[in-house]
Amino acid sequence: QVQLVESGGGLVQAGGSLRLSCAASGRTFSSYDMAWFRQAPRKEREFVAVISWSGGRPDYANSVKGRFTISRDNAKNMGYLQMNSLKPEDTAVYYCATGLLGKYDDWGQGTQVTVSS
Question: Which of 28, 31, 49, 66 is geometrically suited to a Cys-Cys bond with 70, CB 3.0 to 4.6 A?
Fold first, then answer.
């Protein structure tokens, strides 16, 4: 099992930026793909971005493409989500997760991102 702890959330004005971090411990972080998901109030959890175990092949939801960048540093057991040009509709709890082949077994507790208009 990989233990994941997100940080970096907060309150930001529309157009601003935040960088989320995901600290991993436990099983070898570098063996697993890492993804970010989010869940807004009264909405289903949705996929945001994913990066492969090696750091390649990033993929994004259409709603964040061009604004968000996912990255990882396996030497530090860290994952990141750089969020630019934030919009009020990006307001949600953001979760990092690890797994393989689109199945995510380990999840963090989430970090709140609030974007004011």
Answer: 49
Question: What's the rounded Cα separation, in Å, for the pair 107 and 95?
Answer: 7
**Structure token digits, residue 115:** 């974007």
2 near 26, Cβ under 8 Å? yes
Query: Which residue has tokens 């492969």?
Result: 52
Structure confidence at residue 28 (pLDDT):
87
Tens digits of residue pLDDT in 59-99:
999 999 999 999 999 999 999 999 999 999 999 999 999 99
CA distances from 72 to 6, 28, 53, 65, 77 (A): 13, 13, 9, 18, 8
Number of residues written out for the chain: 117
